[in-house]
């Protein structure tokens, strides 16, 4: 399994968005404002008659901000962008895979208002990659 995909996607998003905070990987920081990307469970792969296979990697983006409008706007920007991302848009740092596409899996949803007053939103995505 290409272990670098989530890091590569985080770098890709940071390079293509003006974010209010750097993306963290796996754990949502305690900060008042934060953005995190992390893997979620997914079907392992799609097999084709010619013997080739594509890996499906599910991931979640969490956006936390004290301003609810900023949290919603940021999550919506990610959703629109990632639902249209096509072949080779994300580059593997170690050459272990080729990016095929990403799609929205679960639309953005309000998760909670935390004890410090920050609003948290989440959306789930699937990425299809071919292992090199």
List keywords for this structure.
132 residues, STM4215-like, alpha+beta, 6 strands, 2 helices
CATH superfamily: Phage tail protein-like
Mean pLDDT, nearest integer? 91
Q: Briefly note the CATH topology name.
A: STM4215-like
Biggest sheet descriptor: 6 strands, mixed
Percentage of residues assigned to helices: 10-25%
Give the helix/strand class: alpha+beta
What is the CATH class designation?
A: Alpha Beta
Number of helices: 2
Low-confidence stretches: none
> Which CATH architecture is right?
2-Layer Sandwich
Q: Please indicate the count of domains.
A: 1
Count of DSSP strands: 6
What Rg is obtained from the alpha carbons, in whole angstroms?
15 Å
Order of helices and strands: HEEEEHEE
Proportion of beta-strand residues: 35-45%
Which overall shape is indicated by the principal axes computed on the Cα atoms?
Answer: elongated
The span between the termini is 10 Å
């Amino acid at each position: 399994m290409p272990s670098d995909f989530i890091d590569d996607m985080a770098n890709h998003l940071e390079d293509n968005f003006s974010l209010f905070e750097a993306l963290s990987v796996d754990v949502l920081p305690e900060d008042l404002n934060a953005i995190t990307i992390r893997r979620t469970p997914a079907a392992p792969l799609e097999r084709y008659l010619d013997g080739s296979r594509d890996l499906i990697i599910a991931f979640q983006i969490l956006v936390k901000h004290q301003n609810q409008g900023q949290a919603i706007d940021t999550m919506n920007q990610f959703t629109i962008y990632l639902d249209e991302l096509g072949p080779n848009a994300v580059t593997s740092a170690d050459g272990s895979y080729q990016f095929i596409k990403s799609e929205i899996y679960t639309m953005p949803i309000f998760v909670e208002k935390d004890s410090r007053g920050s609003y948290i939103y989440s959306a789930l995505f699937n990425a299809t990659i071919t292992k090199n």
